[in-house]
Amino acid sequence: MRADLSDLQAFLAVARAGGFRDGARAAGISASGLSEAVRRLEAKLGVRLFHRTTRSVLPTEAGARLLERLGPALAEVDAALDVVNGFRDRPAGTLRLNVPVSAARLVLPRIVPPFLAAYSDIQIEVTAEDSFVDVLAAGCDAGIRYDERLEQDMIAVPIGPRIQRFATAASPAYLRRHGRPEHPRELIGHACLRGRFTSGTMMIWEFERDGEIVRVDPMGPLLVGVGAATDLAVDAAIAGTGIITLFEDWLRPHLDSGVLDPVLEPWWQSFSGPFLYYSGRRLVPAPLRAFIDFIKISAE
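and the corresponding structure tokens:
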């Protein structure tokens, strides 16, 4: 039984987008054309691939199993076709990246514009989320993580600043009302603006000075999802609601303007910068190879 490649790609677009309308927009075809391709594929396979309701489109068990194997397989097909890019004067195609929100905000803005200016035939699609995903199954060429410990078949390349820090800050008005903590443990008595990862794990605040590490699980009036809702916590800190801990680069404009004051600065902890990671099991697509070479040259 041999299914048409375009029908398989239509199934993949719907599954990843969670619906025919968004899938059609991502695939660049009409929703009716996408729906017909999926019906054709289901008829050929003899199984239903999606549960369809007025509110959602979700893979059946058979659809989920197909999706699990199909994403990496089609990625290999794309990589094989990309071989011809090596015969072009300039690489062309689409580079798909899956990155945390912090990287989309703090790392990529310094890299993407000059890269696109240098490679006019390449497009970049960025998905920003803070849950760990299988980049191949998600249809992406590469991802970014803040940890070089990756699976054995993954290759990691440094991207962006090699050393970053977490900064703690509060508004001058908050510090006038509640006082300035002099030790991380004093944060227990303060209103702290906290974050929770998509996994449900609470973000523990960690401080370090002269080899001493102090971990604090503070309380406070506001809890936000790490990533997309982080700016709400920053705005609350500026308004005097409480104390925030976040990437120093994220808070730096507000520290420089004076709307936030640094707190516990001698205790701010440094950590390793992010890494671009991609699979070592497949051919590297030409757009990704150009991107890797670009960030390596930019780091020199």
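(Above: one complete record from the training split.) The mean pLDDT is 86.
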